[in-house]
């Protein structure tokens, strides 16, 4: 998160590592919500956040995107 924040600051966007993490987790929650919908699962925000911060889920999303 620190590396991303540093890169964003160099490009003129004021950002710290906490902001980067929040944006990343928010994006992962959106992905988790869409994937859950594909399986007709309806998770609440707390469950989606738990899924989003799970390293296995993040790794799976990364592998899929590659």
Task: Lay out the secondary structure.
Layout: H1 2-10, H2 17-38, H3 45-52, H4 55-65
Helix pairs in contact: 2-3
Question: How is this structure best described in words?
Answer:
The chain is mostly helical. Helix content is 76%, strand content 0%. It contains four helices and no strands. The protein has helices spanning 2-10, 17-38, 45-52, 55-65.
Write a concise keyword list for the protein shown above.
66 residues; mainly alpha; 4 helices; 76% helix
SSE order in H/E notation?
HHHH
Quickly count the helices: 4
Q: Main sheet?
A: none
- What does the average pLDDT come to? 96
- Strand content bin: under 5%
**Radius of gyration based on Cα positions:** 14 Å
> Structural class per helix/strand content?
mainly alpha
How would you name the oligomeric state of the polypeptide chains in this document?
Answer: single chain
Total DSSP E strands: 0
User: First CA to last CA: what distance?
Assistant: 20 Å
Please summarize what this structure is.
This protein is mostly helical and 66 residues long.
């Amino acid at each position: 998160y620190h590396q991303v924040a540093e890169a964003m600051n160099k490009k003129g966007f004021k950002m710290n590592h906490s902001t980067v993490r929040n944006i990343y987790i928010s994006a992962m929650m959106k992905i988790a919500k869409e994937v859950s919908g594909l399986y007709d699962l309806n998770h609440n925000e707390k469950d989606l956040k738990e899924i989003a911060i799970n390293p296995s889920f993040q790794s799976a999303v990364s592998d899929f995107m590659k």
